[in-house]
Specification:
The protein has about 375 residues and is an alpha/beta fold. About 35% of the residues lie in helices and about 15% in strands. The chain folds into 2 domains: about 190 residues, 3-Layer(aba) Sandwich (Rossmann fold), CATH 3.40.50; about 160 residues, no CATH class. It contains 11 helices and 14 strands. The strands form 3 sheets. Strands 1, 2, 5, 6, 7, 8, 9 and 10 form an 8-stranded mixed β-sheet that branches. Strands 13-12-11-14 form a 4-stranded parallel β-sheet, sandwiched between helices. Helix 7 packs parallel to helix 8.
């Protein structure tokens, strides 16, 4: 479906309650894009805010990503803003059915017609609070009287490729039978239903942010990038982890400048920066963590960060190096780049951290006992 007409059917993504943040959630959107492509539907690109996707969030998809990011997958897509215009301009009100695709299964067997899913319907279909923003943003949509809930029939379906393929086929069969104009989806699966090779490995972020990341990377080069997510890591390990990180940084710094693994054979010691990307609130310990799910900041987290920063003090082990982070670099270049730290949401900050780290001369990731691992 290349154009817009009154008979067009849309796959509408409702990701408000998905427990995944941007880096994983975008993969789920790709999975839904493949479903849209296979069923000849148009994918509506959801808004985002603080690393969460869904119709209730405030920033357009294109604030973070290039508009045609899924084009190489053969997916026809439109922004949520264009979708709103479409619903408002149709002569007849568009119809929609809500589908909840959930990860858990309380049933003991599959539905009579399907081997890999269980299906149930609810007449009250969705609580008023969870539907308000959709009705407010697209008030002309007429919803079906019931919601369809789909659950995997097998608890660990993702461990068996045949179960995974069967689940994907059953979900597409259910969606393919829908006659409403809009298939409105809440997606809570945590594992892909299509092979990894079927999705994009590199997501193209909006040019504004890739250029900003490149500019900051140039300003601080040569540099070591550290990605340290403390959330879910054992709290009692934190101080030892900081000490181990200091030792690792020092070993990189001490490499002979002629060594092929050294940061830069021509760089003087006082030009080397260490860029720290972390979910710990470096601006101030009383600030919120840089993750919507990291809620329990412990004294051990604070002690670990103090230990790391002490290493960069005038009499510290890493005194010749400069410790920096996204907040420092954004605030130092507000006038040049035209963006304020206070205006950035946590999702955008995470994206910029990744883009900057990609340009580093050295990259240090957290170990299994010291950092959140995927």
């Amino acid at each position: 479906m290349k154009g817009l007409n009154i008979s067009e059917v849309f796959l509408f993504l409702h990701l408000r309650r998905v427990g995944e943040q941007e880096s994983k959630a975008i993969r789920h959107i790709q999975q839904l894009g493949i479903i849209a492509r296979e069923l000849n539907l148009t994918l509506v690109l959801p808004p985002m805010w603080k690393a969460r996707f869904g119709t209730c969030y405030r920033n357009p998809f294109t604030y973070y990503y290039e508009r045609d990011v899924f084009k190489t997958l053969g997916v026809v897509s439109m922004t949520f803003e264009a979708f709103q215009q479409w619903t408002s301009r149709r002569f007849s009100k568009p119809t929609s059915r809500i589908f909840n695709v959930l990860r858990s299964n309380t049933e003991t067997k599959s539905s009579p017609e399907f081997e890999h899913v269980t299906i149930s319907e609810s007449m009250h279909h969705i609580s008023k609070g969870k539907r308000d923003c959709l009705e407010h943003k697209a008030p002309r949509i007429t919803f079906a009287s019931a919601t369809t809930t789909i659950r995997p029939a097998m608890p660990e379906w993702f461990l068996d490729p045949s179960q995974t393929a069967g689940l994907a086929n059953d979900i597409m069969t259910v969606f393919g039978r829908e006659t409403s104009n809009i298939i409105s989806v809440k997606w809570e699966l945590r594992h892909p239903i299509f092979p990894e090779l079927a999705v994009l490995r590199n997501i193209e972020y909006a040019r504004r942010w890739t250029e900003l990341a490149r500019s900051i990377s140039t300003d601080i080069s040569p540099f070591i990038a550290i990605h340290w997510r403390m959330e879910t890591a054992p709290v009692h390990h934190m101080l030892a982890c900081a000490e181990g990180l200091v030792s690792t940084i020092n070993s990189i710094y001490q490499l002979p400048r002629g060594n092929s693994l050294a940061i830069d054979a021509n760089a003087s010691s006082d030009t080397i920066a260490v860029y720290l990307a972390t979910d710990y609130p470096l601006e101030t310990p009383t600030a919120a963590a840089h993750s919507g799910t990291f809620r329990d900041l412990h004294e051990n987290h604070h002690a670990a960060i103090r230990s790391l920063m002490d290493a960069f003090s005038s009499d510290g082990t890493l005194a010749p190096l400069r410790l920096t982070n996204l907040a420092q670099e954004i605030k130092a270049s507000e006038e040049r780049h035209g963006i304020r730290w206070e205006d950035m949401d946590s999702g955008l900050k995470g994206i910029l951290d990744k883009l900057i780290a990609m340009h580093s001369n050295w990259f240090i990731a957290g170990t299994r006992t010291c950092s959140r691992r995927r």
